[in-house]
Description:
The structure holds two protein chains of two kinds. Chain A is α+β, with helices and mostly antiparallel strands. Chain A is built from five helices and nine strands. The termini of chain A are far apart. In chain A, about 45% of the residues are buried. Chain B is an alpha/beta fold. In chain B, helix 1 (about 15-25) packs parallel to helix 7 (about 315-330), helix 3 (about 135-145) runs parallel beside helix 4 and helix 4 (about 160-175) packs parallel to helix 5. In chain B, about 50% of the residues are buried. In chain B, strand 9, helix 4 (about 160-175) and strand 10 form a beta-alpha-beta unit. Chain B has helices spanning about 15-25, 65-75, 135-145, 160-175, 190-200, 270, 315-330, 335-355, 355-385; strands spanning about 1-10, 30-35, 80, 85-90, 95-100, 105-115, 120, 135, 155, 175-180, 205, 210-215, 230-235, 250-255, 255-260, 265, 275-280, 285-290, 300-305. The longest helix of chain B has 30 residues, at about 355-385. Chain B folds into two domains: about 1-120 and about 265-385, FAD/NAD(P)-binding domain (3-Layer(bba) Sandwich), CATH 3.50.50.60; about 120-260, 3-Layer(bba) Sandwich (FAD/NAD(P)-binding domain), CATH 3.50.50.60. The interface of A and B includes residues 37, 107 and 161 of A. Flavin-adenine dinucleotide binds next to helix 1, strand 4, helix 3, helix 4 and helix 7 of chain B.
Amino acid sequence: MPEGLVYTGIPSAAELAACPGIPSRERTAKGRVAVIECVQEIPCNPCERVCKRGAIKIGERITELPRLDGGLCTGCGVCVALCPGLAITVVDKTYSATEASIDFPYEFLPLPQKGGLVEACGRAGERVCTGRVLAVKKTAAYAGTAVVSIAVPVEFADDVRTMRVLRATEK
Amino acid sequence: MRNVAAEVAVIGAGPAGLCAAYQARSAGADVLLIDENKLPGGQLFKQIHKFFGSGEHQAGVRGFDIAKALLTRVAESGVRVKLDSLVYGIQPDKSMGLLDAEENCLLRAEKVVIAAGAKENYTPFAGSTLPGVIGAGAAQTMIHINRVLPGKRVVMVGAGNVGLIVSYQLLQAGAEVAAVVEAAPRIGGYGVHAAKIRRAGVPIYVGHTISRAYGGTDGGGDCGAGAGGVEHVEIVRLDENWRPVAGSEFTLDADTVCLAVGLSPMTELIWMAGCRFEYIPAFGGHVPLHDHNMETTVGGLYVAGDVTGVEEASTAMEEGGLAGVAAAEALGYLSASAAARKKAEIAARLNSLREGPFGDARRAAKEKQLAAMARFCSCEAERGAV
Ligand SMILES: Cc1cc2nc3c(=O)[nH]c(=O)nc-3n(C[C@H](O)[C@H](O)[C@H](O)COP(=O)(O)OP(=O)(O)OC[C@H]3O[C@@H](n4cnc5c(N)ncnc54)[C@H](O)[C@@H]3O)c2cc1C
Ligand code: SF4
Ligand code: SF4
């Protein structure tokens, strides 16, 4: 089976490596930063508009891929909630000595509880590890999308992109 | 038979019709907007996801919120709106049969804009007449309008944007999606929509199709579809010539099969009026010829939105706006220069929506449609000259 977004629904390693929305290794090492996994030219540009720092550039042609300027991004997370493709996360590999934090959009109920444990999942919905919920934000400006922040072991920071709420029996 | 009259009659209150009505009305025309549904907004009221497009097209705003904004604008502008009313026929002189709350009326308008949208396609397979086999649009209506879950475990057929988005909405509503099956070798819809449902754990099988739905026993009883409905679904892999590969079948438990196998423009009224058509597969089948004003080969009859070729709400809004401006201009409510300015702005936005790998095919299709119209017009002109 061929790899890649149009065959599997999952951006391949090669697609992510070539994606202009992914921050550099050096930038990631400095702390909170947006990771924009938008690898296909679609007519879309709200991320550019909502980033008040000007860290996301698309330009006149709205089908261009969003380019992240890691130097300007503060990791504020506004774009995470407002990207209609749910393609953006904010990753902080410096969250603690051993943990990274991942902020991702989440549009299912029930929402997880702050402090609770969840199943941290990858791009195919597979379980990667256990995550600890740091925050759940759902403001009016987010227009219905919640942003959940979880802590996971730092070695999983590039693999965890979402979560599943654990059922009572799994806790 | 009661007579109903308007300067501009707009058939269909989806994004295209709403924008056409608003533009014509705000230029000063008397506008009657008609929809067979009890709620205006067309497809938009079923779209709870955040839209794509540019900021100008309200990207990032959820579909039903876009509809609400359009409706408010239309209501404030003074458009007359008739809901629960069906236009069931039209003559080449543009006089129309209108069922207004079951009363049969004769509707006449100097300019008519048809913005009737599109209808869902169907695909036959063994067991496709079992209860529990439904259209993706029906699933959306059940979830968002009627607030009932069509089933507990769903197999979605089709990985275009509709199949992907409705799968996501089924998950949000609490159903399980057993799989998305796509006959083509690649996912047709936007990758970000596919990625959302993959992250939620839904497998997508490209190069596969549904070969059979089993059921019909009482065992289906506790499922959404009711007794006698779908219980299992057989999936089969297709080779490069789209032929089923023997021995590749596998079975999934499911009580619902959702078909999202494409949309076709709802062109019945436009055929009836005697308009010329062109067959353009990228647009979903036969589409009416129209010029840059959205006017068809029948003078004073305009078309806009999915009915001119299946695209998106963003393009539907712009085409509607064009038709509204052109109708108002033809009625003398806008000077040629004012209308030209508005039309140029809209055309520029339409162009930006028909770019990139997804837009290129639609742009080529639209160019083909406009070129066919130009050919038709020059033939007519020649004939007139003889
Ligand atoms: C699942 C799904 C997701 C989508 N997501 C997006 C998206 O993210 N972004 C985007 O831009 N687009 C999206 N679209 C596409 C968008 O919804 C349509 O392209 C758009 O609604 C077309 O607008 P329209 O006005 O042409 O037709 P419609 O919205 O279909 O409206 C047509 C209206 O005409 C009425 N009507 C028809 N015939 C008659 C008659 N004879 N008499 C009276 N009334 C009549 C109908 O009742 C209907 O209300 C999506 C579509 C679907 C199905
Ligand atoms: S996280 Fe904030 S600063 Fe960084 S790209 Fe997103 S909106 Fe801009
Ligand atoms: S808003 Fe999201 S989907 Fe749209 S271009 Fe930006 S990153 Fe891509």
